């Protein structure tokens, strides 16, 4: 199966072209947030360097959020457009789980973190089972204090990775030697691992209905809700 994998959830941009689990070409950029400018040229370049045409692709795997509103919207929009234009399969994967794929240790709980500002985070808890991440606590947008209360009950080592700088001191104070802080490279998404993981997942049945996985209100929604506290916001912005 020829697979295109895309992750622009945050600052890094990572794109890979796979032939089943064999990596054909990959680009990862961490120096800018100009995903709108670089994403499609990177995709076109990698497909060409893989000696493929767009029509050879059979599946698109995309990290669909949470993360930067602009980043995940860009990736999901590009993935939907490619899937619809080429008539190929689309697979959605949590951006936090995508980061957890970087950790293969079987004896730790994996805690990927995206900074949600003001001591809030996008996070979830995973463990490796048969070489694949298994959810322990669902992805969510949560305050650091509340998150620590959730994870303190586990007696395994907890490895944090991603945007850890704003949280590691408080987490170390709360968890002590139970906490492991991954190195910086582990916090960069790897589109090849995303593509390999998405190879075995079920494709979405309705590409038109696919939306980014924000996990919290956008600023526009929050502002609108303040001005219309008694109105139903269900259809204001569709998301999962």
Topology:
Blueprint: E1 2-7, E2 13-19, E3 22-29, H1 35-49, E4 59-63, H2 69-86, E5 89-93, H3 95-100, E6 108-117, E7 120-129, E8 132-143, H4 144-151, E9 157-162, H5 168-175, E10 179-181, H6 191-198, H7 219-227
Parallel strand pairs: 1-4, 4-5, 6-9, 9-10
Antiparallel strand pairs: 1-2, 2-3, 6-7, 7-8
Helix pairs in contact: 1-2
Provide the descriptors you would attach to this structure in a database record.
240 residues; alpha/beta; five-stranded mixed beta sheet; 7 helices
Q: Short summary of the structure?
A:
With 240 residues, the chain is α/β, with parallel strands linked by helices. 30% of the residues lie in helices and 30% in strands.
Describe what this molecule looks like in 3D:
- The protein is α/β, with parallel strands linked by helices and 240 residues long.
- It is built from 7 helices and 10 strands.
- It has helices at residues 35-49, 69-86, 95-100, 144-151, 168-175, 191-198, 219-227; strands at residues 2-7, 13-19, 22-29, 59-63, 89-93, 108-117, 120-129, 132-143, 157-162, 179-181.
- Strands 3-2-1-4-5 form a 5-stranded mixed β-sheet, sandwiched between helices.
- Strand 6 (108-117) and strand 7 (120-129) form a beta hairpin.
- The protein is globular.
- 41% of the residues are buried.
- The model is unreliable at 235-240 (pLDDT under 50).
């Amino acid at each position: 199966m020829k697979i295109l994998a895309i992750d622009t959830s945050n600052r890094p941009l990572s794109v890979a072209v796979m032939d089943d689990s064999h990596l054909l070409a990959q680009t990862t950029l961490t120096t800018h947030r100009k995903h709108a400018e670089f994403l499609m040229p990177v995709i076109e370049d990698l497909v060409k360097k893989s000696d493929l045409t767009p029509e050879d692709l059979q599946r698109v795997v995309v990290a669909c959020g949470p993360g930067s509103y602009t980043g995940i919207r860009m990736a999901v929009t590009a993935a939907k457009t490619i899937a619809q234009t080429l008539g190929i399969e689309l697979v959605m994967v949590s951006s936090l789980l995508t980061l957890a794929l970087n950790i293969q240790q079987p004896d730790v709980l994996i805690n990927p973190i995206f900074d949600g500002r003001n001591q809030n985070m996008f996070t979830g808890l995973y463990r490796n089972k048969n070489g694949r991440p298994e959810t322990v606590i669902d992805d969510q947008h949560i305050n650091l204090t509340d998150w620590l209360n959730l994870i303190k009950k586990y007696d395994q080592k907890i490895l944090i990775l991603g945007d850890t700088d704003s949280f590691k001191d408080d987490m170390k104070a709360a968890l002590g030697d139970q906490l492991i802080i991954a190195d910086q490279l582990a916090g960069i998404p790897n589109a090849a691992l995303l593509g390999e993981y998405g190879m075995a997942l079920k494709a979405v049945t309705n590409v038109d209905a696919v939306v980014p996985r924000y996990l919290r209100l956008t600023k526009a929604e929050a502002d609108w809700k303040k001005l219309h506290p008694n109105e139903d916001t269900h259809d204001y912005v569709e998301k999962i």
